[in-house]
Amino acid sequence: MSLRDLSTADVFGLAAEGQRHALGRLLSWVEAGGARADEVTELAHPVSGNAHVIGITGAPGAGKSTLTGQLTRLLPARGIRPAVLAVDPSSPLTGGAILGDRIRMDDIAGEAAFIRSMATRGHSGGLALAVPGAVRVFEAAGYDPVIIETVGVGQVEVDVAGAADTTVVVVTPGWGDAVQANKAGLLEVADVFVVNKSDRPGANDARRDLELMLDLSHVSGQEAEFGYRPPIVMASAIDGTGAEEVWDAISAHRSHLSDTNQLESRRERRLTMEVTNRLEQLLHAKSHSLLNSPAGGKLLDDVESRALSPSEAARRLADHIGNQN
Amino acid sequence: MAERRIRIILAKLGLDGHDRGIKVVARILRDAGMEVIYLGLRQTTASIVAATQEEDADAVGLSMHNAGHLTLAPAMVQSLRDADMAVPVIVGGIIPDVDRTELAQAGVAAVLGPGASAEEVVNTVRDAVNSQMDLSR
Amino acid sequence: MADPAKESRPGKTKWEEACKASPVRDVPFETMSGVPVEGVYGNGPYPGQYPYTRGIYPTMYRSRLWTMRMFAGFGTAVDTNGRFREILRNGGTGLSTAFDMPTLMGRDSDSEWALGEVGRAGVAVDTLADMEDLFADIDLSNVSTSMTINGPAAILLAMYVAVAEKNGISPDQLSGTIQNDILKEYQAQKEYIYPPRPSMRIITDMVKYTTSEMPRWHPVSISGYHIREAGSTAAQELAFTLANGFAYVEAAIAAGEDVNVFGKRLSFFFNSHIDFFEEIGKLRAARRIWARWMKDRYGATDERAMMCRFHTQTAGVSLTAQQPETNIARVAIQALAAAIGGTQSLHTDSYDEALALPSEKAARIALRTQQIVAHETGVANVADPLGGAPYVEWMTDEMERRAEAIFDHLLELGNDSILEGVFEGIDNGYFVGEIADSAYRFERELNAGRRTIVGVTGFTEGNEEDDVNLLRIENDTEQDQLQRLATVKSQRNEEAVQTALDDVTSAAADTSGNVMPAILKAVRAYATVEEIGDAMEKVFGRYVEKAIV
């Protein structure tokens, strides 16, 4: 049986039954976008929306993959089936990527987890759709939680934080020296902090620095309103400590969210965001083709010859799109 | 806007630890716009099959330097077949020319000998994937 | 950084006196045409004088040629034992053991990982019984044995000691080397088992053990060969190797050992690649740097602890599968570079090794190549014959400069400790990344036509001519070995084995103790390599590398 000749619905059914390759294929369709991806969304949306989505982020070398592996190893014993989406940047020059996160996780996690590597493919816009799409599909196939692990710092991380219920930020001793620590996004999105490689000198300083930063920043607005302050968990792969505590902190955060009704509102916001992103993408495609059509070309010529103003031209094009249905 | 990139697993089976070549190939393929899922050393046919399924990879690339290719490469082909996966297996490294026929007969899609150029590597992967491509994607 | 400029008369006199004290070989020290030549030319410091740039002994090859040590090992222990005894019959005094892949990785022949690999790349050793077969009828008090093994080195060393013991030979009578250089495994060869720190602890235990029980044994052979084969540049090979050496020194000192005592027992293993002058400069720089650091930073006062003594192997990675006979030329040039570079021992590769294990004929030609260099070229008549040549002196300085820049980086990574810097570099992927970058850069240049490899990127006429006779290993070895292992397991006292293994685990967990006695006990009870390794893994964990491509 090859997946080749099957319909989207058939492959979806197989994935829901636990077939790994079928799920792998769905993920590829979602990543590629287009009509197939939309079909998958149609099928997956009604049966998803409850999985706990966890984002794990932090600077390169912080030990995220190892930590993720440790977490995923813990969970099956508790009857939990985690999926991991490991996101890595594509080369801006060639569009290709080397995706190597799964080595560390794989070995530690064993067979229980489903691990998928995803490259950013150069456009965070695309990622903004592919990630929610992937999460949906994982859940439809019975995986919960979905852990999204990203590299480094930047737009990607903030995007991913947007896709997650709980965001875990991993730092290591000496993080305070790194410029990225001060980048606005990272500290504000953290729901749980992990000081990894805590067997090293400077671990306690790292914790103290984080506490201080939390005291000072407006992240504590969260604390004021909801009584939640991101916990700081110490972890060390060498000592084999911390994974359970990290999981407990993540679970506690999830409970906090549902207790304060934030879970629902965060998810609504995410769905709205997703619809907005899709809409914008559709509109972008439409305007692109309009502008390149003969009628569009004529409008642009008129603008150039001063017969029409740019704002009037744009208004007419917008009306045209609006009237198209 | 559908975007399709070749996704290829790169791995070494067994205990052989020479990874200079496979790392160079990973960069070559990335530079050609492909997505390389790098599994590295000490993989088993089972771990590679699982990764191929999860990553929905278009090809599996094995690097061999220990004279084990006549046993290991066919074993990889068979494991993929057993899992109902029509994914081409490409083998590179220290492969004497005389063994190419036997490997082809065992179902290996392509062989890259020592000294293959970057262009050859990229074209070989592309050709192997295109010949096998699932057209209903 | 350069040597003090002018020839100093006192220095030369001292050198002359040192020469008088060293017996020399009974051969004419003249050119082929009968022109007598001096032992050295040019300026000091002279060979045998700090910092030993020009050689570690005053008379160098006039006293003794480098050791022509050819590596061997295959099949079962009984097979290799036959080869060993042949070597000894033919007048060899040194044995060099190659182990199979499963043994190198600490696995037994019946492990699922061993399938197809047993006895293939070297000899299979699972228990003391195999070691007993390996050295049967060989007087261990009378030979020097080199064992090329790293991860499970402690276990193999213990087995060697146990075999000697059974033959009434005490450990202090044993002479030889064990490679046991785990740092380069994380950087290049990848034959590691445990993570870096516990592995370092095992090595310092072995250093302590050999210092007190086996004074004639070299416990670590710090290797650059593999680093270079993995794709590093010459300067990286030099710097990473010496840095690893410094790391072992720092670890041993921290463990309370005397640098003058263990320093004498450390040796190195370098690559000899095809860029002739770069290699010579590299080897000269190695001696200079090691001496300086041992003296200035680590406080060595015994000259012998400052000397960088090394074995060299010609670069396997430079051998081409295309027109393989051309490799004979390559190896000859690489051997010449090693001799001019002052190596203490040399292994030359066989021309057919690009595709398979060497055939007997090819292995013989490799040995003859060394013999030609030693006996026909006149290179052995004069120590450091290219010393003073502007290019060579510049190259030596340049290699040293580049190495020092790398040491600076490691000191920064490690907060002024090379040991910590090396651990950090392993952890953050520095070494592996640098090596991969160098390898990739080279491939790009090759591909772009900016570099040439004869027979590969150019001068390819002749490539179609087939076909070098390839050595294939047939595999009844595997069956024989599995039998042997099963028999040993059925005959041993399981309870004793289990107790011994538990003791190994306890010893590993006790950071104030030494693992060697417990390993010795387990080995005597016929516990297997994998069982003992696993007993330690319980405490140390297993190392999984990060993907740095």
Description:
The complex is a heterotrimer of chains A (325), B (137) and C (549). Chain A contains 14 helices and 8 strands. Chain A is α/β, with parallel strands linked by helices and 325 residues long. The model of chain B has no long low-confidence stretch (mean pLDDT 91). With 549 residues, chain C is α/β, with parallel strands linked by helices. Helix content of chain C is 49%, strand content 7%. Chain C contains 21 helices and 9 strands. The longest helix of chain C has 24 residues. Classes of the chains: A alpha/beta (325), B alpha/beta (137), C alpha/beta (549). Strand 3 of chain A pairs parallel with strand 2 of chain B.
Task: Please summarize what this structure is.
The complex is a heterotrimer of chains A (325), B (137) and C (549). Chain A is α/β, with parallel strands linked by helices and 325 residues long. Chain A contains 14 helices and eight strands.
Summarize this structure as a short list of keywords or feature phrases.
heterotrimer; B: 137 residues; alpha/beta; Rossmann fold; 5 strands; 42% helix; C: 549 residues; TIM Barrel; 49% helix
